[in-house]
Amino acid sequence: MKKKLFLILRYPAGILLFLLGALLSGLGNGIPSMILFLLLMLSEIVLIYMESGNIIDLRLLLSLSWLFGISISSLKLSNLQSPWSVPMWFSTGGFYFLFLIGFDAMSWILKKRSPERRHRKNIVTFRHNPSFRRAVFSTILILTMAGLFAFLLESIILDFRIPIFAEWSYEAYSEFHVTGLHYFCVSLVLVTPLSVYYLFLGKPGRRGIMALIICNGIALLVPFLILSKMQMLLTLALPAFAFLVIQEKIPKRIIMAGTVVFGILVIGVFVVLMRYKNYPEGYLQSIFQFKKPETPLTIQYPYTYIVNNFENLNLLTLKLQHHSFGIRELFPFFALTGLKFLPKVQTLLALEQYTTIPELTTLTVLYHVYGDFGTVGAFAFGLVLGGVSALVTDFSYRRKSAGGVLLYVQIAFYMALSFFTTWFSDATTWFYFIATAAITIYIRIYFKRNNRPAPVRRRRKPEEDDVDLELDDDERSDY
User: Fold this and answer.
1) Would you tell me which of 79, 215, 310, 343 could form a disulfide with 144, CB atoms 3.0–4.6 Å apart?
2) For residues 231 and 277, is the Cβ–Cβ distance under 8 A?
3) Among candidates 186, 144, 146, 197, which has minimal Cα distance to 403?
4) Separation between Cα atoms, residue 479 and residue 468, nearest integer Å
């Protein structure tokens, strides 16, 4: 009874807390508003973790990134920020709570349809199977060779203008892109999580270890050479997520220590990448436009790259005159099919993108959804995404196939950085999904072809008159 009452009160209490925080933020009370949103974030994280025991639960990651971004946005430390509109508050809040409701509803449906699903053992069916391990290993090699070939070909086509060697690397990074080839280049991010999956299947030999080191070295080197922060972050985060998905029981102290080490590693990588991007002196401070210019750049940079995405969405809610009814969300289809090069399609896609300044173009996961269908679209998107996330969670943790693990870690990453970009209306995201499906099909076909059992030859039963089967040694010599 207490549990049912708690579940009934959980969402109204959370929505009330969100609305109160929004009201205080609108009145200019930044710090109290931030405290309320942080309180909501912490309470949701604790409740979700107590329920699932999963540190990378998709609901937990979304709660952390979405509510934390909203909370620090309430401080309004930059001149780029402005008070949020009513549609902005309804869209961000409605999306979040409907995501949770959609997830819970789909989980309830799955449990009702098959109660025993939850109690199935979470193991890889083909662990230690040589054919299956070879299938995964060959996939790693193919991905690495395809990504390296695409990178080298891009470099040749672009006259070896590799961003890390450019005088102003930021501009070179933006220009290092060849249509079609770049998808395969950035697909190197799938090498590291697949390598973790392969190691879980069994201990490789010396040659296997050397091959894995080379493949993962290439997967890390390419994003460093092209100075892609997002590709580097994916390359580092996805294997960590894959380990947490595959490994069932991990001591909390190891998780905490690993989180700290991972955080230090990511910060170190970002510092190095920032150093090599060779921004002109004072460039970053000029675009961040902090109200207190003396604020350290180490605070200005992460703060702006979180909150300005919400500001771009708020600007859209204020300035948008007409919704595009699906055109923005269909961009991956136009891009991956090549239709975006047709003049009529280009005219159709020529929609204005509202940003605070031209240099800061990153957006939240809701930007294109709102542009297409407004607040109603944000609500529907949250509900559908929550349901799909529950399905992916059930499939990935129940079977733990290579494709299931890859799919889960990608969506986990998108939830963890839901404030950063549109993700699901980005062509690269859908190329990763297609690559994941291709990997799944390839492994299945490879395994079936190379794991066929040898045909069993049926022995003829001796008949009563087969006395010649029992011969003396002298008689055998006659044959």
Assistant:
1) 215
2) no
3) 197
4) 11
Task: Answer whether residue 248 shows pLDDT above 70.
Answer: no
Comparing 94 with 273, which gets the higher pLDDT? Answer: 94
CA–CA dist 197, 275 (Å, integer): 33
CA quadruple 61, 64, 100, 367: dihedral sign = negative
- Nearest Cα to Cα of residue 70 among 313, 320, 381, 424: 313
Q: Which residues contact 31 (CB under 8 A, 6 or more apart)?
A: 74, 75
Q: Which two tokens stand for residue 48?
A: 């979700």
What amino acid occupies position 59? Answer: R
Could you tell me how many residues make up the chain?
A: 479
- The pLDDT assigned to 30 comes to 92
User: What distance in Å separates the CA atoms of residue 15 and residue 21, rounded to the nearest whole number?
Assistant: 10
Tokens 């220590």 identify what position? Answer: 257
Q: Dihedrals φ, ψ of 475, to 5°?
A: -70, -35
User: Which residues fall within 8 angstroms of residue 399, CB to CB, at 6 or more apart?
Assistant: 125
Q: In 10 A of CB 333, how many CB atoms?
A: 12
Gap between the Cα atoms of 78 and 308, Å rounded:
9
Between CA 82 and CA 1, with CA 42 as vertex, the angle to 5 degrees is 125
- The mean of the pLDDT values for the chain is 85
| Sign of the CA dihedral running 335, 431, 380, 420 | negative
Q: What angle do CA 1, 388, 140 make, to 5 degrees?
A: 130
Q: Radius of gyration (Cα) for the chain, nearest Å?
A: 27
pLDDT of 120 higher than 50: no
DSSP code, position 453 = P
DSSP string, 44-111: HHHHHHHHH--TT-HHHHHIIIIIHHHHHHTT--BTT--PPPHHHHHHHHHHHHHHHHHHHHHHHHHH
The mean pLDDT value for 186-200 works out to 94
User: Rounded to 5 degrees, what are φ and ψ at 78?
Assistant: -115, 150
Distances in Å between the Cα of 89 and the Cα atoms of 102, 198, 453 are 20, 44, 60
State how far the Cα of 215 lies from the Cα of 222, in Å rounded to an integer: 11
Q: So what's the pLDDT on residue 467?
A: 37
Report whether 351 contacts 119 (CB < 8 A): no
Q: Across the strands, what pairs with 358?
A: none
CB-CB neighbours of 118 under 10 Å: 12
Do 44 and 14 contact (CB within 8 A), yes or no? Answer: yes
Structure confidence at residue 158 as a pLDDT band (50, 70, 90): confident
- Strand-pair partners of 424: none
Give residue for tokens 């309320």. Answer: 36
SS3 290: strand
Tens-place pLDDT, residues 372-424: 999 999 999 999 999 999 999 998 888 788 899 999 999 999 999 999 889 99
DSSP state of 338: T
SS3 29: coil
Identify which of 479, 334, 395 has the alpha carbon closest to the alpha carbon of residue 122: 395
